[in-house]
Amino acid sequence: MKPIARRPRIVAGNWKMHRTAPEAAALARELASLRAADPASSSAPVVVLCPAAPALESAARALAGSGMALGAQNLHSEPQGAYTGEYSGAMLASVGCRWVIVGHSERRHGMGETDAQVAAKLRAANRDGLVPIVCVGETLAEREANRTEEVLVRQTTTAFHGLGASDLAAVVAYEPVWAIGTGKVASPEQARDAHRLIRGTLDAVLGRGAGEAMPILYGGSVNPGNAAALFAERDVDGALVGGASLEAASFWRIVIAAASAG
Ligand code: PGA
């Protein structure tokens, strides 16, 4: 990873399987006008919107010129081939994506995506010019069995193993599975401890300094009421937001909280 003086703040909205193409365009337009109307928007964090695949193109048109970026929620690791229902990073890039979520827990646990597949997708994203948001996180059972550290180290190590820090473009999202969609947000201290552990693991895998350079987002029940406390932790560089990203006003309050965190 190229050295950067200060890690960028990033707020990404994961719209999951919500919003049709016209609905996604409407939401993107609402966000674009909130950004345009906001005098603080020039210092705003990087904002990434991740609609469902069928809505990417209409969202891209709605976002054009807004300064916000488009991301997808998944990609296949192969550049092309007989993979019915799948799509490559190049296809995503061709409709305007610059980002892609990789290894979300709903894919790891709901669709059996393995650590090895996540690693392949991370590489595919970089090959195709996309920045992967690589999700890691423990389940409730793993946390209660004191296995959080083991799980985060394993998921992070497998994802990044063998890559060179100098030509890697990636972001990590720490998303404890027990916090996703449950309303049970991690405390700022829990997020900080996990982010520090992930930074240490990145140092071990990619070389010293890699952890400090990598933006690490927190995800799991982030809302306008709890975002500022999370962003006050210097190890929390932003958020991956699910439910609260589906409503323009609430998502924008989270963006503002990130901008105000400096
Ligand atoms: P949530 O989802 O904000 O609805 O908990 C976060 C995520 O799944 O990325």
What would you say about this model in short?
By secondary structure, the chain is an alpha/beta fold. It has helices at residues 21-37, 56-63, 89-94, 105-108, 115-127, 140-144, 148-160, 188-206, 210-213, 227-231, 248-260, and strands spanning 10-14, 46-50, 69-72, 97-102, 131-136, 171-174, 216-219, 238-241. The protein is 41% helix and 15% strand.
Please characterize this protein's 3D structure.
This protein has one domain: Aldolase class I (TIM Barrel), CATH 3.20.20. Helices cover 41% and strands 15% of the residues. The protein starts with 9 loop residues before the first strand and ends with a helix. It has helices at 21-37, 56-63, 89-94, 105-108, 115-127, 140-144, 148-160, 188-206, 210-213, 227-231, 248-260; strands spanning 10-14, 46-50, 69-72, 97-102, 131-136, 171-174, 216-219, 238-241.
Outline the fold blueprint.
Blueprint (H helix, E strand, L loop, with lengths): L9 E5 L6 H17 L8 E5 L5 H8 L5 E4 L16 H6 L2 E6 L2 H4 L6 H13 L3 E6 L3 H5 L3 H13 L10 E4 L13 H19 L3 H4 L2 E4 L7 H5 L6 E4 L6 H13 L2
Parallel strand pairs: 1-2, 1-8, 2-3, 3-4, 4-5, 5-6, 6-7, 7-8
Helix pairs in contact: 1-2, 1-11, 5-7, 7-8
Overview features:
TIM Barrel; single chain; binds 2-phosphoglycolic acid
What is the CATH domain class?
Answer: Alpha Beta
CATH architecture label name: Alpha-Beta Barrel
| Overall domain count | 1
What distance lies between the first and last C-alpha atoms, to the nearest angstrom? 22 Å
| Whole-angstrom Rg | 17 Å
What order do the SSEs take from the amino end to the carboxyl end, as H and E?
Answer: EHEHEHEHHEHHEHHEHEH
The CATH homologous superfamily: Aldolase class I
Shape: globular
Q: Describe the largest sheet.
A: 8 strands, parallel, barrel
Q: How many β strands by DSSP?
A: 8
What proportion strand? 5-15%
Tally of individual helices:
11
Average predicted confidence as pLDDT: 95
Strand arrangement, largest sheet? 1-2-3-4-5-6-7-8
Structural class: alpha/beta
